[in-house]
Design brief:
Shape: extended
Number of helices: 6
Mean pLDDT: 81
Helix content: 40-55%
Number of domains: 2
Number of strands: 6
Order of helices and strands: EEEHEHHEHHEH
């Protein structure tokens, strides 16, 4: 039975490349990702909850493009934290402090084994679909040399990137009115997020880029 080449699975991955923190899809679409802070809605007063809800409604009404809201739930890995505590144990000045630290380490380890401790991250995926204007199309037709074509492609990317950045700024500004802080991910952060997204064993809520 013949095995499929490793590249066969790549056809199901919609990502062509990641550039300047922007995901470029195989169909030519762009995706920018904002990481967002959280708001403890349950601890707010009724008036504050109403203000947040109203602010979020106003934010959605200002958008003339779709967005994707992603909640990434992952099991928290406490091993680095426990290892750090174990390194600090010999540095404690008294035997009592060393005993208390060891007991605390055992408590955290036991609690982590019995409970499913989760950490949540919040993201917003902002799309942009570049369009070929008449001027750009004429420019491509007039440029026969590869260097000129490369320069034109670079110029078009910068134009499209500026449009996507405007959308990201609009979304971040709208969220600020609800008390949520948002910042765009860089290239390395996007790569890490996509790696986890395409490895279901490490991520429960994979990001969809094709909607």
């Amino acid at each position: 039975m013949a095995t499929k080449p490793a590249t066969a699975t790549q056809q199901f991955v919609p990502v062509k490349e990641i550039r300047n923190g922007v995901i470029i899809l195989k169909d030519g679409g762009y995706r920018g990702i904002l990481i967002c802070s959280s708001v403890n809605f349950g601890l707010k007063s009724a008036d504050e909850q109403h203000a947040i809800t109203l602010g979020f409604q106003n934010f959605l009404n200002t958008l003339d493009f779709s967005i994707q809201i992603v909640v990434n739930s992952r099991k928290m890995d406490l091993r680095p934290y426990l290892a750090l505590l174990e390194e600090k144990a010999p540095e404690q000045k008294t035997e009592l402090m060393r005993v208390q630290l060891r007991e605390y380490i055992e408590f955290v380890r036991s609690f982590a084994d019995q409970a499913n401790i989760m950490t949540k991250s919040f993201y917003i995926v902002v799309p942009y679909a570049p369009h070929v204007s008449a001027a750009r199309a004429v420019g491509f037709l007039r440029r026969g040399a590869s260097a000129a074509k490369s320069a034109a492609t670079e110029a078009s990317f910068e134009e499209d990137l500026a449009q996507l950045e405007q959308r990201l700024s609009l979304v971040a500004g709208g969220l600020a009115g609800t008390g949520v802080r948002a910042a765009p991910l860089g290239t390395e952060e996007v790569i890490e997020l996509l790696y986890r997204s395409f490895n279901p064993g490490e991520l429960e809520n994979p990001i969809r880029l094709d909607n």
